[in-house]
Amino acid sequence: MKILICFGTRPEAIKMAPICLALSQKNIPYKLCVTAQHREMLDQVLEFFGLVPDYDLNIMQPNQNLNVLSARILADMDAIFKTECFDLVLVHGDTTTSAMVALAAFHRQIKVAHVEAGLRTYNKLSPFPEELNRQFTGRIADFHFAPTEKAKDNLLKEHVDKSKVLVTGNTVVDALFITLEKIKNGFSNNAIENLKERIGFSKRIILVTGHRRESFGVGFENLCKALLEISKRQDVDIIYPVHLNPNVQDVVYNKLSNIANIHLIKPLDYPSFVWLMSKSTLIISDSGGVQEEAPSLRIPVLVTRETTERNEGINAGCSILVGTNPSKINAAVNEFLKKEKFQCEINPYGNGDAANKIVDFLQTYIK
Ligand code: UDP
C-alpha cells in the first residue's frame, strides 16, 4: 500500500502535519508532495514540524491565474503518477491543489482520501473558488474524513456512502496542541522575542488576520475603517500579521500605517502565531483555521465574512459572523471587551485526536 500525501498552502500543511507525524509514529511509510501554492509560508510550517517533501512542484509563477495553475498541477502530478505507483492519495480541504491532485489521481485510477471533507456553503461563488474545489474533491474522493457531524450530514445528503465517511474532528486542533506543548516546554524564536520586545503586552491584544478573495477591495477597506475606529481605544493593542497577497498588503499598509497601537507585521510562522493567539483577548479574522483553533484557547473570533461553512462555532457561541460593515465590527468589539468571561466551553471542531483516528482508519483499510 503506497500512500502519497499532497498539499500546497500553509493551512493545509498545518492541518496535514499531524497526519504525517502520526503515520511516522506508527511506522507507516508514505511520501510527501508539495505543490508550494504558498512558498515561504508553507516552508516555515514544514520546517517546524520536521517534514521534508519527496516531491516539490514549486508551482507558483508571477501573476498566474487559476486556470494556468490548475493545468500545471494536473500535468506535474501526472508526471509523478507516471513514474511512481501509489494506491492512495490524501488531499486536504478546498484548495486548487486539492481539487487538481484529486483529479489527476482519479484519471490514473488511484484512490483519494479527503481530509476536512464535507464543509459547505452551497454557494459556489462564496468562498470562491474554495466551495467548488471542496465539492469537486468530495465527488472524486473514495474516503471522507469529516471534521464534524454537520460535515458528515452534508456528505450523506449528497449520497456519499456512509461507510466511507468518518467523523474525526479537525486535525488543526491536533496541530495546535502539538505546538502549545512545544511552547510550554520552552520553545521560542526570534519572532516571539521581537513581539515581546516591541509590544510589551500590557494592554489587551486584538489579533487580526484576513486573506479571502471575497473581501478584496471594499471588504478590506471596510475592515481598515473599523480598525482605525477601534484603535481610538487606549486600552488595546491591535496586532495584524498582514497576508502576503498584494490585494491585501496594498490596502492595509496604505490605510493603517503609522498608527501607534496598530502593529502591522509580516505573516508569522505558525508557532509564533499560536503563541500570539494564546496572548490575545479577541481575534478578528476571516480565516477558517483560526475559527477552529481559537475555541481551544477560549478566545472569541469575530468573523469578517457574510457566510461561513463553520456554523458549529457560531452555534456554540465561540464566534460571531460580523461581515465587513465597520460599525457592526466596532459594536461587536466593544461588546466583547466589556465581557469578563467568554462563554465557549468546548471546541466543536475537535479535541486533538483527529490524526490518530484517520491513521487508524487507514490501517484497517491497508490490512
Ligand atoms: N496562521 C499562521 N500565521 C499567520 C496567520 C495564520 O501560521 O500569520 C495560521 C493559523 O494558525 C491557522 C492557519 O494559518 O492555522 C490559517 O490560515 P489561513 O487563514 O491563511 O487560511 P484558512 O484557514 O482560512 O484556509
TrEMBL record:
<dbReference type="Pfam" id="PF02350">
    <property type="entry name" value="Epimerase_2"/>
</dbReference>
<protein>
    <recommendedName>
        <fullName>UDP-N-acetylglucosamine 2-epimerase (non-hydrolyzing)</fullName>
        <ecNumber>5.1.3.14</ecNumber>
    </recommendedName>
</protein>
<feature type="domain" description="UDP-N-acetylglucosamine 2-epimerase">
    <location>
        <begin position="25"/>
        <end position="362"/>
    </location>
</feature>
<dbReference type="GO" id="GO:0008761">
    <property type="term" value="F:UDP-N-acetylglucosamine 2-epimerase activity"/>
</dbReference>
<comment type="similarity">
    <text>Belongs to the UDP-N-acetylglucosamine 2-epimerase family.</text>
</comment>
<keyword id="KW-0413">Isomerase</keyword>
<dbReference type="InterPro" id="IPR029767">
    <property type="entry name" value="WecB-like"/>
</dbReference>
<dbReference type="InterPro" id="IPR003331">
    <property type="entry name" value="UDP_GlcNAc_Epimerase_2_dom"/>
</dbReference>
